Amino acid sequence: MRGLLQFTLDLFGPEPPAPPVLKRNKAVAPMGPSQPAIEFVVTAAANEAARPLEQMLAPAAFRHPRANREAQLSGAVVAYEFRRGKRRTIGFAVGPDGLVVSAPKWVPLHEVDAALREKSTWVVKKLGEARERQGRLESNRVEWKNGATLPFLGERVVIVLDPRHAFSEVGAVLQTDADAGAHGGALPGAPRLSLRLGLPLSATPAQIRDAVQAWLMRQARRIFLERLNHFAPRLGVQWRRLALSNAGTRWGSASADGSIRLNWRLIHFRQPIIDYVVAHELSHLRVMNHSPRFWDTVRTVVPDYTELRGQLKEEALPRWD
Question: Which of 43, 45, 290, 321 has a Cα-to-Cα distance from 200 of 20 to 30 A?
């Protein structure tokens, strides 16, 4: 039934078949005729920026919180979680917590150790990249207080508690420095935009967070509707329903009945990135897969989709917890 068909755009979904601009997150490589295959998985987007030489030469240690084995790999101490399971391959998964090695029940430990040593450079590189990404995520943590900043459409916005707006219809007003009466524009490096919330200076972090989220979700719905109505005629499709999501692993989804779901936190990104996600989901109303025909459809309205897709995977969302 058409209404049951659905396609999603994951935060770290499959690569298009066109020449890739990013490294794949998953690969399987046979070790030899008598050895099991090895599967590699990276569960967080990698930061490919080069590290300073002194940082690369310094001894490193990576410890998984549930580590039950340890190894010396490429000059680094790697304490990892080892699991046995019903699988056919030795799997290496690198995520925010560290390295997880999974192996079939029939594979002896010495073969697991050999596979780990053979791929030690890859493992340590990915662990370093995951650590760097976690650092960037932590640096983006929002402190819910007067003067805090967060991104809106790719631009920094400062939160200002302003009780004068407490009884306004929306309880929040976005202002530029010019709207606020600033002379000569904002100071260099200072946010140009301020979100003035109708809350007292004594407001709790939870109150501030909830007020900001409500405002952002209103803006997300407004902009998503505008972009859906912009791209749908150009793609020759008709969408029927928009729902906002807060999914932790996907940016959007599309059903064959015309229903579109978009993650409201896309509102943190620049509009071209939002346009890519909107066009991606609308394109699924024509092609319910990630075949070359699908990506050709996306390209008709977003020619630089590969670059925008890469930016979507690399940019870090602000931490709200």
Answer: 321
Higher per-residue confidence, 34 vs 298: 298
Cα separation values, 7 from 200, 208, 236, 274, 281, Å: 44, 35, 18, 18, 8
Q: Six-digit token pair at 46?
A: 């990698």
pLDDT band at 187 (very low <50, low <70, confident <90, very high): very low
Whole-angstrom distance, CA of residue 252 vs CA of residue 244: 9
The closest of 223, 235, 239 to 273, measured between CA atoms, is: 223
d(CA 247, CA 262): 9
The pLDDT score that the predictor gives to residue 186 is: 47
**Phi, psi (5° rounding) for residue 255?**
-110, 155
More confident of the two residues 8 and 201: 201
Structure tokens at 119: 């791929």
Model confidence at 89: pLDDT above 50: yes
Pairing of strands 76-85, 155-161: unpaired
